[in-house]
Protein 1
Amino acid sequence: MRNLLIFITKYNAFFLFLIFEIASLIIYIKYNSFQKASFINSTNRVSSSLYARADEFKGYLSLKEVNDGLAKENAALRNQLRSYKYADTLAKRTVNDTIYKQQYVTVEAKVINNSINKRNNYLTISRGTKDGIAKGMGVISDAGVVGKVVFVGEHLAIVQSLLHKDSRFSAMLATNKEIGYLEWGEDMDPHKGLLIDVSNNAQPKIGEAVVTSDLSLFPAGVPLGKVSKLNAKKGGGFFLNMEVALATDFSKLEYVYVVINKFAQEQNTLEAQEKKADE
Amino acid sequence: MSRILIINLVRFVVLVLLQVFLLKNITLYNLSTPYLYILFILLLPFETPNLVLFALAFVLGLTIDAFYDTPGLHAAACTLLALVRVFFISITVQKDGFDNEPEPTLSIMGFRWFFTYALVLTLFHHFFLFNLEVFRIDEIGYTLTRFLLSSVFTVFLMLVSGLLFFRKKERK
């Protein structure tokens, strides 16, 4: 016993190393399921308040660009107003439109923390369960797709950015509706994505728009980017892979919209039932 | 004693803030990201007990993780860094020389020693950090490029900060 103690004290550096290394690796591995280690991330009180401060300051620096974006969006929305359209018929009465039921609603949120230069990037946004945000919802900006909500606090939520090695969104070519997946490229360029697993008979052209498909968690047709190169290096086989210039400029995100799908719950319950029936 | 404590506390806070609010946003050509905060562990006094050294490295890593949203990643890399530091110092520094050489700074230890020290420790830390973060063999070439270029950037910043706080009278 005494010899053992002497041995341990003599090589104490190594044993301390083992203890702390194992502790941190356990934290790191558990973090893959994210919620378990949620206390060490930027929704905790100290780091979120510091980030909010820094962001307040940064907000001033980019006021001009944000203003431009908002003005553009205002203009687009104004064009949809009924008063801006020419009424074709004389009889004016409000009709409760029962054919169209609102499926998607968006909630606007401010980005308070963002990164683009890591292999796995996350954003922190200023909306949480209080505002109806739940895990798995899609996030878009005025330019295009941003990511997916992975963790929700009461007032804040964390979004797994499209710039993440596990991010994969169902996408299609805008003209011929050929479906594939959009991923982030391996070379970590925040302006480039890869559209993979597109069927061989799709004939894509450079400059063609890539949008979200009906199978994704976004409304169909949200822009993802434009095809910029036809043959991406990773590929071959039975499918086409191509490079996509992303529509969203992740380095300049200020405001985003969380997409709430009102039928999501119904869809999930139905699909769960079907899964059960299969077993 | 209390002076050393205060200096290190200030160093901790300043390096963490610098890393999180300035260096986190700096990337050269998507390849080179500096992680200057490890300078805190490098500059701890020689007589720091191993337990304190490892605990501080772990806490520093977790603090950085809280801001980077990567729980455990930097903590693991910093713990490895502490172990390499213990080995490196026990190999290169005479134990009885501790009285007049309290801290392994550039101005006390001289350029050649400090450069080797910073380079070796940074290489270990960055190699572990980048590979644990990516954790994919098929991207190894790209990860290695990032690791090497980031190490160069970090060591460069360390030398610059060493020269900034260079005090000549301490060298005997």
Protein 2
Amino acid sequence: MADPKDIGKAFKEKLKGFDQSPSNLSWEDIEPKLPKKEDDKLSYWAKVVGVLIFLLLLMLFAADTYNSNIITENSTNTTIKIPATLENCDEIDPKNSKLQLPSNEIITTVLVSPKSKSDINDIYNSTTNNNWSILDSKTNNGIGLSSNKNVSNSSFIITRKMPLSTHRTSKQAPRVKNVMNKGVEEIKNTQNSTNSNAKTNPTNKKTSISSTSITNQIRNKSDKILNNSRNRASKNEKFKENKDDSLTTLIASKKNTSINNRKNKDTLVYMTPIKKKPFQKFSIGVHVTPTYTIAPNGSLISNHLAKNTNRGRISLSYGVLFKTYYTEKIALRVGYNRLKLSNKINNVPTDQLPIILNDLGIILPANNTIENSEKIDLIQKTIYNEVLFGLQYQILDNQISTALIGELGFLFLDENNIKIHTTSNNFKLGSNTNILKTNFSINIGANLRYKLSKKIFFNVEPLLKYQLKNASQNSESYRPLYFTIQTGVSYEF
Amino acid sequence: MDTRKLIKKCQKNNRKAQSELFHLYRDTLFALSLKYCKNYNEAEDNLQDSFITIFKKINQYNFKGSFEGWMKRITINKAIDKYKKTPFTDININKENIADTEIDSETLNLSLDELLKYIQELPDRYRLVFNLYELDEYSHKEIAKMLHISEGTSKSNLHRAKVILKTKITSNNNCLKKIAISNG
């Protein structure tokens, strides 16, 4: 009789290396039941492209808003006049310096009232040496030096035409200013953006207002021009009777004439853009975020727990937020959050635990035991690095201000663990390998802001966040929804 | 193809690689299923479920430890899941046989099919414990956690499984001997 052996060991020896082919099962039976990953991939990339397009649109919108601010800034303090005809040139109001301009040129006008002949000589010398032209304020005709004695008690306009790029109103006027009794009353820049013909028509007498060559004509025909001017003035009885009237009266009369003429035959359009200051403001802030997971149906851990009671728990997250205000109402938000989520599954049956652990690829730690009668709760904790992009629209802006928030969050799984909680024991089981490494979330909410000082604000932002993809690889759908209250301070600059 | 490359291709959901992996490990895992299941059909079902799970979870395999061991564990767990849910009643065994679980090699001179048949005929819990402890070298502590029973229960179940096996094999041999004697 052979040596007796333990039956277990005997079986092991006999069955060692035992292999057998299944007769009825083939690859064709398994293949249709495998997940179709190709479709998932396509869907995944479609989502990624969608997100990128959204971000691109966001950036374009922000850039557009920013550029429109710059344009507004450049147009500030510029009066644009669009003349219908060149004849309208003599209706220009010298007080307001609304002169017709050739495109790309700027005319600077200065209204002066010399008291003596010597003043007129100084004006003439100064202006001709600096490409300025002298015009009678009443007629807008040129004035020559030889006739200056006749206009010693009158006033005239001196003008200078310059290319737009070299125009320096405030720097070039003072040289003339020094010799004036009344000095510069008003300097304004005007620009004709549409009628470029005005500058090129040499036959039209009105262009003499702004032509540099007219200076020579003024010099040669000054007497004649002056006489014409005086004759014109004499035709107007009001002006004759009030020869000693002040310049103000004269200009007021001219204004009235000009306005009446405009009504009759002129189609001048004056556009004065609303002055807007460029708006660009930044804000940086830190916050802590109590986060409550609103546990949906299903389970992040295992499909076997889909029908168990799933309760959300409160955890504490934190992060930073950077905001760029492109207008007073709209701000771009970029942020980072260390987002912690937690939920608890109650009353897990003891006989399900090995199945669940098998799903997760977890082996129960050797130094822990669970009795059959014990009730088991499983606590799933996940920690994500969340990168945020979004927009904020200001509704109220007072001591306490409010805004609406829309964000897109990119979630990168950093840590996760499952803890087991029984009546007698608590211990960590391990990591849940089923949770997706990346996910997206859409966040909507509001910003409530309290002004602590001029630049420091206290912020409370209740936000509802919803993950767009299944958070777990389990076949059952599980898309976490969570409510956060971002509470912190921000600094604006 | 190198197993590592094959696994990586399977992780990318390459059907050809999955098919190759299936054919490579099919026999080993089917033999394992036969030991843990009641019969041939259930073993085939278990094999199918196991391969589906393996391909779904192959991304979780991190190349630490034996890949074959990882697949075997999934196959065993699949079988355990199935029989764990069925209600189980302990069987009374004659006291005289309790202590003795040894058998001589002549008595165990049986074919593989016969050996498998004896194992498959064991009650579910006893079969699982016997396979886990004797054939796949799990400890009683591990078995207790896997089956969610106490270590003592695991030891007791193992012993009873051995007694049943010995009783059946011995009685079967005795019958065969009697038949042989009567036939002359």
